[in-house]
Write a structure and sequence with these properties.
The protein is of the alpha+beta class. The chain has helices at about 20-35, 75-85, 110-120, 125-130, 140-155, and strands at about 40-45, 50-60, 60-65, 65-70, 85-95, 100-110, 165-180, 190-195, 200-205. Strands 1, 2, 3, 4, 5, 6, 7, 8 and 9 form a 9-stranded antiparallel sheet that branches. The longest helix is centred in the N-terminal third of the chain and has 15 residues, at about 20-35.
């Protein structure tokens, strides 16, 4: 019989009062078992008119302040976020039969953080941030390749490629975090953390 935590859930849910501690435990496990991109997540946003969009992005940092990803600030996702900052993330780790869903509000990361991450990227990725007008229509692929080559000529020194002013990060400050574990006969296990007005986390069990 599997060990249980104090709420009667599988021991993998632990007994943490802070969901960030449990997230770190599960994320570290996913890094060992997922073949590709354990930091991949589905990001759901909606426009000011309530039209939803979802796409995969990569988590680049997380801490008590929230969960961070980077993108073009003129992209469709960023336009949605600027008009409606409420969003949701979903991690699905098939190898572990686990999911984590996070609901919260998005804000820009500080410039110093965006600079530090941008400068850690490969030369090609930094050039690509300049060359790609993300989400806009291309006449053909040659248009993109020409733009890449032009920016390589503009910034030939691989150590001196400044961060584009329209490229930065978003931080999702969580209000709810749900941990989900697959169960036999669809009797899944679900633990939800809800942040109170005082800033403390409260735990509740959800029916599958």
């Amino acid at each position: 019989m599997n060990e249980k935590n104090s709420l009667g859930l599988d021991i993998c849910f632990k007994n943490f009062e802070n969901p960030l501690e449990l997230f770190k435990e599960w994320f570290d496990e996913a890094k060992k078992t997922e073949i590709n991109d354990p930091n991949a997540l589905a990001l759901a946003t909606s426009s000011k008119n309530g039209i939803p969009s979802v796409r995969m992005v990569l988590l680049k940092d997380f801490n008590e302040k929230g969960f961070v990803f980077y993108t073009n600030l003129k992209s469709k996702k960023s336009q949605d976020i600027q008009s409606n900052p409420h969003a949701s993330m979903c991690f699905h780790w098939k190898s572990l039969l686990r999911q984590i869903r996070i609901v919260g509000e998005l804000n820009n990361v500080p410039d110093k953080d965006a600079d530090a991450y941008y400068n850690s990227r490969s030369y090609g990725s930094r050039i690509g941030a300049w060359a790609s007008k993300q989400s806009t229509i291309l006449k053909d692929r040659d248009e993109l390749y020409k733009s890449i080559n032009n920016f390589k000529k503009k910034f030939p020194d691989e150590k001196k490629v400044p961060r584009p002013p329209n490229w930065s990060g978003w931080n999702l400050s969580p209000k709810e975090i749900e941990f989900w574990l697959d169960g036999d006969n669809r009797i899944h296990q679900r633990l939800k953390y809800i942040k109170s007005k005082s800033g403390n986390w409260e735990k509740v069990l959800l029916s599958p």
